[in-house]
Structure to design on (486 residues):
């Protein structure tokens, strides 16, 4: 297409075909998580399509393609956490879709596309930490799409947009802690996905897993167990009895029994699945998780010697994974550290965390895993009221030089915890030193907001930031965040 475009630079058909290829290329880049490359491809496609729309203003197909490229560009920018630019692209696309819907109010395609745009804006607001604003967009999407489906019940694209909108609303409500409202929405989303894609589709299974968590959060453990058992049967049918995902689903059924306080049934199933895992997937993280869970089961039925044996075996597993040098071993170390803490062996958890971070120094690591590891370390020293320990942990996180909003926010709350521990420790100049740490926390919080952090509700409710609540600059920042969400 590039060659043809060079040979026939004025041909609308050739230019349009090139734009289509670029748009498809951008989609593939997004699937490969190469979001910068996808942004570049979408921008090129948009430029060509905008040129065609300007050249042929009376042909709606060119405006429609401009809207498609703007939507695709907005998704890529969202993935890059360029939320302001993403919103600008979405709103331009929305403007075109709204004009189309107004011009053709009875056209289901025009109206379901508009509903999809509302859904995209809801997803953007949720991703950027504005769940209350996201709810409004998701509600608009649901109303529009349900109206379309009332007239055209077989329009599968509208059903998919509706499923995504319902799921987005469920996620927003979950973020806001309104768990009782989530379950009905998630059940609706699951029903739509089963109808569209079947029960064994990966998207359907992901929604089932989310619904299990929703049932657990409102203590509907019987329904959660039934859904876990359904997932296990689907995995057996599609993947076979010994696939890692099947064995993981089997282990998950045991959690269902544990939640119902049927500890003997959970223990029996965990012993069975662990034996299978050791034979079929001995190096998989599912095997470690099952070791940790089995240790809990032994505790629950008063077999402390077996619980200790299982935890020791799990830690040997973690250290073998770390010695491999594979960066994914940090997630394994996180599971091991949590297991130590669950077993009351906090000091050993900290030693494991330090070994893991030292071993993986210089490797490309997912920032969320590092934050979660260091958060366990922070809590250990905060519980001991060890100011030096919490300060050293915060300093380590600072040195990682995060640029993303979530990473910067993590450094801010780490520093706020340091300030609280220093203040509560007392002693000479404690208040002065605590104030210095609080100033640092505010500096990092300001960096997070400047980088795009927008979740005002979380900032207002995060107990780790309590040490900052009486400060004027903190109150001003909250007001600024709330204004940005309007």
């Amino acid at each position: 297409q590039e060659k043809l475009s060079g040979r026939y630079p004025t041909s609308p058909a050739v230019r349009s075909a090139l734009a289509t290829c670029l748009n498809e290329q951008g989609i593939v880049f997004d699937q490969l998580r190469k979001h910068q490359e996808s942004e570049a491809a979408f921008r090129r496609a948009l430029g060509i399509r905008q040129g065609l729309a300007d050249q042929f203003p009376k042909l709606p197909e060119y405006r429609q393609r401009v809207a498609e490229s703007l939507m695709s560009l907005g998704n890529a920018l969202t993935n890059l956490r360029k939320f302001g630019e993403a919103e600008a692209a979405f709103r331009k696309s929305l403007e075109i879709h709204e004009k189309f819907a107004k011009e053709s109010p009875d056209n289901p395609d025009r109206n379901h596309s508009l509903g999809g745009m509302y859904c995209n804006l809801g997803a953007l607001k949720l991703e950027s930490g504005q769940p209350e604003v996201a709810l409004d967009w998701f509600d608009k999407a649901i109303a529009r799409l349900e109206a379309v489906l009332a007239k055209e019940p077989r329009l599968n694209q509208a059903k998919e947009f509706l499923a995504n909108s319902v799921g987005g609303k469920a996620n927003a409500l979950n973020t806001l802690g309104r768990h009782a409202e989530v379950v009905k929405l998630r059940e609706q989303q699951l029903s739509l996905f089963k109808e569209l894609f079947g029960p064994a589709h990966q998207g359907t299974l992901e929604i089932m897993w989310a619904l299990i968590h929703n049932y657990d959060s409102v203590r509907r453990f019987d329904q959660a167990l039934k859904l876990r058992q359904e997932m296990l049967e689907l995995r057996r049918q599609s993947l076979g009895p010994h696939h890692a995902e099947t064995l993981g689903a089997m282990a998950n059924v045991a959690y269902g029994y544990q939640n119902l306080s049927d500890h003997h049934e959970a223990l029996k199933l965990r012993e069975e699945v662990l034996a299978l895992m050791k034979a079929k997937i001995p190096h998989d993280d599912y095997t470690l998780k099952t070791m940790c869970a089995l240790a809990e089961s032994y505790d629950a039925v008063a077999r402390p010697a077996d619980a200790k044996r299982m935890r020791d075996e799990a830690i040997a597993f973690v250290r073998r994974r770390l010695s491999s040098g594979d960066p994914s071993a940090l997630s394994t170390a996180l599971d091991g550290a949590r297991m130590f803490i669950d077993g009351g062996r906090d000091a050993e958890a900290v030693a494991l965390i330090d070994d893991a971070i030292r071993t993986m120094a210089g490797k490309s690591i997912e920032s969320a895993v590092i934050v979660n590891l260091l958060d366990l370390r922070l809590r250990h020293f905060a519980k001991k009221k060890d100011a030096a320990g919490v300060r050293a942990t915060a300093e380590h996180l600072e040195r990682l030089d995060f640029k993303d909003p979530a990473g910067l926010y993590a450094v801010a709350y780490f520093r706020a915890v340091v300030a609280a521990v220093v203040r509560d420790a007392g002693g000479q100049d404690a208040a002065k030193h605590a104030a210095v740490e609080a100033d640092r926390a505010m500096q990092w919080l300001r960096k997070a907001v400047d980088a795009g952090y927008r979740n005002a509700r979380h900032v207002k409710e995060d107990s780790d930031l309590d040490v900052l609540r009486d400060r004027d600059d903190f109150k001003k920042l909250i007001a600024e965040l709330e204004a940005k969400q309007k």
